[in-house]
Amino acid sequence: MTLPTEATLGKHGARPPEVGRDPLGGSADVLVGRGAVISPPGPLLSFWIHFSANAGAVAGLAIVVAVLLLAALAPWLAPYSPDLTNSSAFLRPPAWQEGGSSAYLLGTDAIGRDLVSRLMHGARLSLVIGIAVVALSIVVGIALGLVAGFARGVTDIVIMRMMDIILTLPSLLLAIVIVAILGPGLMNAMLAVAVVVLPHYVRITRAAVITESSKDYVTAARVAGAGHLRLMFSEVLPNCAAPLIVQASLGVSTAILDAAALGFLGLGAQPPAAEWGTMLADAREFVLRAWWVVTFPGLMILITVLAFNLLGDGLRDALDPKLKR
């Protein structure tokens, strides 16, 4: 038997901490020493570790938070009302360009409205459109996907063939047709975009329901007497949340882009609403002699859509066990 020496003992005669295996049988190393065990990170910390490993996702999250704060604080941060005109400042260039003024940092539009104020308030409208469209489509999509996944048979065939028909049509063209039938306006544009993105949520939910329904926990709940509603909403739906969250984050960017396209065509938000697509439509005739009235709304659409796409990619990497690094 070999006695412990001073090199293997601590200052007070205790053994130094050793790195061993997780006593619960996990694969993560834990630090064992003086009776202390460092447990593996919780689900939220684990999610953040995998999410933050994607630098693009973190950048997207920061931009999304910044745009949300900008939209929420627009009434207090905007220097002017978005509809306030100045007859002496038509098409005023940005402050750093010759002829510009510090009173209008990004210049003014054709009727003297401040672009900074209109972009800030436009963020509110564009985000409301994106979030409302996704909320409506995800609620209806989950309901139809659950029904199709559980009912199967004729009901499943009818629902999925309807979704296939919607997917065969170009999304923007279908939205234009719906708005042309219902009439131009913000609410009709939101409804049209919601219909366009609806099939994605139906298909994701149905696929997840079919996968989860064959697992043991669903069979056990069914044997225990659980009804269809409990199986849908208490057992299966929580385990389908990850792909739906990812699709929702990507869907916001799609909704903002499609709503801006409808606004540009005059079928979405109507003037004088400060919506980015409508701002682009109002500035079409001034592209060659007033670049700022087109560039800044376009940049806001580009940055916001890109941020939501990066955020969605990060959520997919963090929530999908197959893609965790």
What is this entry, summarized?
The chain is mainly alpha-helical. It has helices at residues 43-52, 55-72, 74-77, 115-151, 153-168, 171-182, 186-213, 216-223, 228-236, 241-264, 276-282, 292-319; strands at residues 18-21, 29-33, 36-37.
The beta-strand count equals 3
- H and E order: EEEHHHHHHHHHHHH
How many separate domains? 1
* Rg, Cα atoms, Å: 27 Å
- CATH fold call: MetI-like fold
| Head-to-tail CA distance between termini | 45 Å
How does this structure look, described?
The chain is mainly alpha-helical and 325 residues long. 62% of the residues lie in helices and 3% in strands. A three-stranded antiparallel beta sheet has the order 1-2-3, with no helix packed on it. Strand 1 and strand 2 (29-33) form a beta hairpin. It is globular.
